[in-house]
């Protein structure tokens, strides 16, 4: 659920991100088919070369010229690209058809609930969004304290395996999957792992540790369909958090900086 900017590596596209996942009519400001007329090939055959090597490949004259001819300049925004890549990566990893101001990996349950409630999310929606973690990994520096300081809510065998990955000192960049049961596969195994005290981050395990969200975790662990439905609805809601429309924003020519 939580991470610092350097701790969680995920398609991320995780939690994270402005998405356009199957928006109902009432929320249809964002649309997957928005560029059907202005740049018809951008998402299927013309300009969807994926994440290309920076410099040598992406900026090669032949490649960039073809993109400009097909799409024109300042047509497709970085937010659009992130939204589409988020949606497609979740689908490819087996999930239903996510924002960076998320809780930190060391936060306790009340703090996490408060952060989400400030954005208008219920506890159930918060837990559902946490289910995106199977497609992520975390660095040793973000979970070391959990496995050496207080191991009362950790499965002993799981603790041993993670300590092998993350020693008491050194190896800060060593990676471990956020979902040990089915890493890289979207589904409800994440919640089953929490019930077995196998949450990697403290902010994961607090979702099932005798608190108000225990029953929600239990529901999702036992009913994949309930999780999928709630996750999809929560992602749609997250994707509609204060989007910039009309002349409020800009279409960046380089994603890393404003024009």
UniProtKB/TrEMBL annotation:
Signal peptide: 1-28
Named cofactor requirement(s): heme b; Ca(2+)
Any Pfam family matching the protein: peroxidase
GO MF annotations, alphabetized: heme binding; lactoperoxidase activity; metal ion binding
Glycoprotein is among the record's keywords: yes
Catalytic activity: 2 a phenolic donor + H2O2 = 2 a phenolic radical donor + 2 H2O
Residues covered by the Plant heme peroxidase family profile domain: 43-259
Disulfide bonds: 78-255, 140-166
Documented EC number(s): 1.11.1.7
Residues involved in substrate binding: 103
Alphabetic keyword roster: Calcium, Disulfide bond, Glycoprotein, Heme, Iron, Metal-binding, Oxidoreductase, Peroxidase, Signal
Binding-site residues for heme b, renumbered to this chain: 133
Stored InterPro entries: Haem_peroxidase (IPR002016), Haem_peroxidase_sf (IPR010255), Peroxidase_pln (IPR000823)
SUPFAM superfamilies on file: Heme-dependent peroxidases
Annotated GO biological process: response to oxidative stress
Binding sites annotated in the UniProt record for Ca(2+): 179
Cofactor details (free text): Binds 1 heme b (iron(II)-protoporphyrin IX) group per subunit.
Gene3D superfamilies for the chain: 1.10.520.10, Peroxidase, domain 2
EC category name: oxidoreductase
PANTHER family according to UniProt: PEROXIDASE 52 (PTHR31388:SF24), PEROXIDASE 72-RELATED (PTHR31388)
Similarity comment text for this entry: Belongs to the peroxidase family.
The name this protein goes by in its record: peroxidase
Organism: Aquilegia coerulea (Rocky mountain columbine)
